[in-house]
Design goal:
Chain A: It comes from Mesobaculum littorinae. Chain A: Belongs to the PyrK family. Chain A: Keywords: 2Fe-2S, Electron transport, FAD, Flavoprotein, Iron, Iron-sulfur, Metal-binding, Transport. Chain A: One of its GO terms (molecular function) is oxidoreductase activity. The complex is a heterodimer of chains A (about 270) and B (about 325). By secondary structure, chain A is α/β, with parallel strands linked by helices. Chain A is about 20% helix and about 35% strand. Chain A has helices spanning about 80-85, 120-135, 155-160, 175-190, 200-215, and strands at about 5-15, 20-30, 40-45, 60, 65, 70-75, 95-100, 115-120, 140-145, 165-170, 195-200, 220, 240-245, 245-250, 260. In chain A, a hairpin with a 4-residue loop joins strand 1 (about 5-15) and strand 2. In chain A, helix 4 packs parallel to helix 5. Chain B is α/β, with parallel strands linked by helices and about 325 residues long. Chain B has one domain (about 5-50, about 70-190, about 215-295): TIM Barrel (Alpha-Beta Barrel). Chain B contains eight helices and 16 strands. An eight-stranded parallel beta sheet of chain B has the order 3-16-15-10-9-8-7-4. The radius of gyration of chain B is 19 Å and the shape is globular. Chain B starts with 5 loop residues before the first strand and ends in a 28-residue tail after the last helix. Classes of the chains: A alpha/beta (about 270), B alpha/beta (about 325). The interface of A and B includes residues 53, 226, 234, 235 and 249 of A.
Chain lengths: ~270, ~325
């Protein structure tokens, strides 16, 4: 087996608030860790600060990478010891990252129109898919769900990569399942959809699973789970999936984090 | 150049660094070339297929983590078919960790594992998650003796007994394993612990309790290594919280002939090859000709002179 996963000490370029909940971390990264695919993740060794001493690495889905510029970026919500420690990073600081890890999204050669349905940090996970779709000349519609318009992430990223963005929010009542369902059905009935992708919400996962099954559409979901090693050794990050008529437990870090949508068990999903 | 080889009974290892069971699998070969390791130690295999424990299976603690993975296993037949051939090309000796619920099942598992390609068997007689209330064979001398003696009769392979910190009679357990025919002892498995989320008042682990590993475990594991090494004539392999060169040196000086690196690999996947290099450099710099010269080289304590200790007030 040839070594292909790398631990690298990389420099922080910027680490600023993206909105009230999220921060955007840009890193200057060496090329050998930038052979990434949309949906893959890195294990980040969060720094020890005066107040926080996170012990385990934190898995974080890749928000963007650029081999020409040598850039790697992550969008994260400050929610625990690890992300609080990350939030204190300043330009010029260095952090240790391990990756890229896991299996990302796959695109079949005959797909022409993709539909993305995401909420919360799922928007960050799915943003790189828009870049890949654009590179391959595929049409992509992104239905982005958020509590308020201000908290909707990545809309500019999606638009910059040619995606058609439909924002739905709790604050204006457009994010309820019935209305999101209508949006998706319109998309399928109108321009047409060859495959669907989701991340970040149990409710949206259930909804999309049901619609995809009814229309016979292939789908993929990026899952989250607490991890220790991130490489597949510790068996910590398993989740249940429905496959071939039975329940199987797969490692999110290894067999995932992207799984067939039809196999996901939404009540056990992120 | 220091001679880093170390003898564990009839087995000679190229160097004293190997992974701890449960923190290692073939996937680590994507990070570095595994052939540099002194030995390869598999995650514990049980005879029958087993699921694992409910999630969350790990949580952080100060200076380490708790785990309650629950030994998910595809069973011995799948292991022999899929895993043993996989390791043949790596070169380092393959040590297979086994566990079972009874001494008889342990013996049957050991017998099945006695195949070409397996260099030694590590009997996990200490995993705190399987036996009710954390009880395990390695808690007591007589259950240790029973399990190890049955395994000894079932295999000619070198046999390592992995001991538990959840015993109050470590020296007696160590001697029982030696008397029953173990070729080496591994000190130690995780210590049973608990962590609670004060906000929800729920245990942080799905299985309530779990094993403490990482730096938080190190002083306990080092004490056990020293006690075990001074209680038996067979080699002792240190394990518990090892993350730095000096950690390795401490265990060697305490009496370990080799060490296992576990949780530290989760933080730094390329740590083991780095430790091998650093130990070699240190030995060269210190003029240590053979690693074996370090083993058990603990000097006597140097307490403060009695006359400087304040007299108790009468």
């Amino acid at each position: 087996m040839t070594p292909k996963v790398h631990e690298a000490l990389v420099e922080v370029v910027s680490n600023d608030a993206a909105n009230a909940d999220y921060r955007l971390l840009h890193l200057a990264a060496p090329d050998h860790i930038l052979d990434c695919k949309p949906g893959q993740f890195f294990q980040i060794l969060c720094p020890e600060t005066g107040a926080e001493r996170p012990f385990l690495r934190r898995p974080m889905s890749i928000y963007g990478w650029d081999r020409a510029q040598g850039r790697l970026s992550f969008l994260y919500k400050v929610s625990g010891a690890g992300t609080r420690a990350l939030a204190g990073l300043r330009p010029g600081d260095r952090i240790d990252v391990l990756g890229p890890l896991g299996r990302g999204f796959t695109l079949a050669p005959d797909w022409r129109r993709l539909l993305v349905l995401a909420r919360g940090v799922g928007l960050a996970t799915l943003a790189p898919l828009a870049a890949e779709a654009q590179r391959r000349g595929l049409a992509l519609t992104a239905i982005c769900s958020a509590r308020t318009p201000e908290l909707a992430l990545s809309l500019d990223r999606f638009r910059a990569h040619g995606a058609e963005v439909r924002l739905v929010t709790d604050s204006d009542g457009t994010s309820d399942p019935a209305r999101v369902r209508a949006l998706i059905e319109d998309e399928i009935a109108g321009p047409g959809v060859d495959a669907v992708f989701t991340c970040g919400s149990r409710r949206l996962t259930s909804l999309l699973q049901e619609i995809a099954a009814r229309h016979g559409l292939p789908g993929q979901i990026a899952m989250e789970q607490q991890m220790a090693c991130g490489l597949g050794m510790c068996q910590c990050c398993v989740r249940p999936f429905r496959r071939d008529g039975r329940i199987v437990h797969d490692r999110v870090c290894r067999e995932g984090p992207v799984f067939p949508l039809a196999e996901a068990i939404p009540e056990a999903a992120a | 150049m220091t001679d880093l080889t170390t003898r564990i009974g009839s087995l000679t290892l190229a160097n004293p660094i190997m992974p701890a069971s449960g923190t290692f699998s073939a996937e680590l070969g994507e990070v570095f070339d595994l052939s540099c390791l002194g030995a390869l130690v598999t995650k514990t295999v049980t005879e029958a297929r087993r699921g694992g424990n409910p999630t969350p299976r790990v949580c952080e603690i100060e200076g380490g983590m708790l785990n309650s993975i629950g030994i998910p296993s595809k069973g011995i037949d799948a292991f022999l078919r899929d895993q043993v051939p996989l390791w043949r090309d790596v070169g380092a000796p393959l040590v297979v960790s086994i566990s079972a619920d009874t001494a008889e099942d342990f013996a049957r598992a050991a017998e099945k594992m006695t195949v070409p390609g397996v260099a030694a068997i590590e009997a996990n007689i200490s995993c705190p998650n399987i036996e009710a209330d954390g009880h395990a064979f390695a808690m007591l001398p007589d259950t240790t003796f029973e399990a190890i003696a049955r395994i000894r009769a079932a295999t000619h392979l070198p046999l390592w007994a992995k001991l538990s910190p959840n015993t109050g009679v470590l020296r007696e357990v160590a001697r029982a394993a030696e008397a029953a025919g173990a070729d080496a002892l591994v000190t130690t498995n995780t210590a049973l612990g608990l962590a609670i989320d004060v906000r929800t008042r729920r245990p942080k682990l799905g299985n309530v309790t779990g094993g403490i590993s990482g730096p938080a475990l190190k002083p306990l594991a080092l004490r056990m290594t020293w006690q075990a090494a001074s209680s038996v004539a067979i080699p002792v392999i240190g394990c518990g919280g090892i993350a730095t060169r000096d950690d390795v040196l401490e265990f060697l000086i305490a009496g370990a002939s080799a060490v296992q690196v576990g949780t530290a690999t989760f933080r730094s996947p390329a740590l083991m090859p780095r430790l091998i290099r650093e130990i070699e450099e240190w030995c060269d710099a210190q003029g240590v000709a053979r690693l074996a010269d370090l083993v058990g080289s603990l000097a006597p304590a140097d307490p403060a002179p009695h006359d400087l200790v304040p007299e108790p007030q009468s």
